[in-house]
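Anyone? Bumping this.
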Amino acid sequence: SAVISQKPSRDICQRGTSLTIQCQVDSQVTMMFWYRQQPGQSLTLIATANQGSEATYESGFVIDKFPISRPNLTFSTLTVSNMSPEDSSIYLCSVELAGGPEYQETQYFGPGTRLLVL
Amino acid sequence: QQPVQSPQAVILREGEDAVINCSSSKALYSVHWYRQKHGEAPVFLMILLKGGEQKGHDKISASFNEKKQQSSLYLTASQLSYSGTYFCGTEDFGNEKLTFGTGTRLTIIP
């Protein structure tokens, strides 16, 4: 597995502002992912962030609203732009690593960023 | 398409067994199981890759049916620490992203 950290852990923001969330991992990884999880709900993939290429966004998510940077193999940022109360959610990053007794690749998650937009 | 999990929620007493199902409308490359406790990140439990596969560790095991469209997670002699929401994450052929199921909330009471 890996140690994955996110900053900030939580924030309260005013509508119309933007917040940048950082994700740092303690080893080099090729694939990083950003998810949104609304309270009591499942995880929804926002985008896949690969180093050296543009992020790939899922249906319903656009770059202007959720710009992503991936400057190297251990770090990524997700910005939530022009926020509205509907953006209140938990945002999680994950990385793909080999793990488990058979070293099969799976995703390991950061602790999440709890965002409340007023 | 999001896989469907059943049941949505279950309450058990310590020592009882639980089965959580994850169903897809199409054949999958793999299924990944996670447990998420309230306020925490999802934690990886296990992956299944092969049709007909069964695997597990300690008192938590899982199966993947021959058609690779359904997986089940088995929790035997449940402990208080097993409480949380369980998610399956499914991976399609040729696509490394996971699509997470609807979730099953498991509550273990003394």
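Late reply, but here is one note on the structure posted above: The two ends of chain B are 37 Å apart (CA to CA).
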